[in-house]
Amino acid sequence: MVLVKLFNFMAPIQVSRWAEKLEALTSTSTSDPEGYLGHPVNAYKLVKRMNTDWQELERIVLQDPADGFINNLTVQKQYFPSEEDEAGAAKALMRLQDTYKLDPDSISKGKLPGVKHSAFLTAEDCFDMGKIAYNDGDYYHTVLWMQQALKQIDEGEDTDISKSEVLDYLSYSVFQLGDLFRAIELTRRLIALDPTHERAGGNLHYFEALLEKEQHEGKVNKTAFEEPKTVSGIYERPPDYLPEREVYEALCRGEGVKMTNRRQKRLHCRYQDGNRNPRLLLAPIKEEDEWDSPHIVRHYDVLSHEEIETIKELAKPKLARASIINSVTGIQEPAMYRVSKSAWLEEEDSAVIVRVNQRIEDITGLTAKTAELLQIANYGVGGQYEPHFDFSRKNEPDAFKRLGTGNRLATYLNYMSDVPAGGATVFPDFGAAIWPKKGTAVFWYNLFRSGEGDYRTRHAACPVLVGSKWVANKWFHERGQEFIRPCGLTEVD
Question: Residue 40 burial by CB count (10 A; 0-12/13-18/19+): exposed, middle or buried?
Answer without folding.
Answer: buried
